[in-house]
Write the structure tokens for this entry.
Amino acid sequence: MPNALIVYATEHDPWFNLAFEAYHMEQLEEGRFAAVLYLWQNDNTVVIGRNQNAWVECNTGLLEAEGGRLARRSTGGGAVFHDLGNLNFSILLPRDRFDIGRNFAMLLDAVADQGIRAERSGRNDILADGLKFSGNAFSLKKRAGLHHGTLLVHSAYERVARYLTVPPDKLKAKGVASVRSRITNLVSIRPGITVEGLNASMEKAFLGHFCTDSSWQVRRETDVAFRGDSRLDALHAHYASWNWRYGESLAFDAQISQRFTWGSLTLGFQISKGQVTRASVYSDALDSDYIGQIPDLLTGCRFHSADLAGALQTDDSCADDLVTPRCQMAADIAALIREQNW
């Protein structure tokens, strides 16, 4: 009998919520559940992607001075602002049942249940009336997949401009007015919608898409039921740690940046005696796992364009990503490196 779990968060601690999500990825990989839906909220929080530079993306001093918190998630994508007008969701499924298209269909059904017609747009957004109210990110492990994202219900999203730094290349590509005006709250489209009502619609859509017959055993809990587990405590400490959230700020001997169709990328190199002794990468690409491999691929290479570009052309780089084929990402980065004529 397959088991499904639906969990409603009681905490607004971003580090706990991300830890709780990671904890249930482990539970799913161990076969304890066949489907998990986690519904949660963070208060006054900036969440950055796994491979982003905290100091570049966010005015961390102002955020913390005003009682906010910085969190770093395990998936790729860009920086977002969370408050209690925003509902976050995590859909966790076994790898062989993980289908991004089906996940998006579930989300569209959930908002349709609230009387809102919406559509998927681009790599990871959901729009209503041409305006974005949901951003999404993904992660695949050996036996489990994660799809999580935001649903803006009545968020004070104008605070995004107060805490987040919009990269100049994105401003150039989209324009200041576009960056600031392309977001909306669901309450602006359907007055009276609430986080609680959307929670109920999310549960209904989740059960309809992933627990499709009477053989499923569905368990509903709050996060309180899982507290005290040592693995969850360790994950909480990890996500709350300064090292995870901020990481190192390194001085580089060479640095290049470029925005591609699949996201932005900055590569930094520390060089000694013509060899790369340390490489670092910052990116809002959705494929956080591949981006995370790049420093290891480049470290130890001769600091020469052909050598560096060649190091990216591995068998693994041509595995399919969730959104953009890794071979395309590798080819784009290699071409950028070759252009430098190092």
In short: Residues 168 and 207 are 42 Å apart (CA to CA).
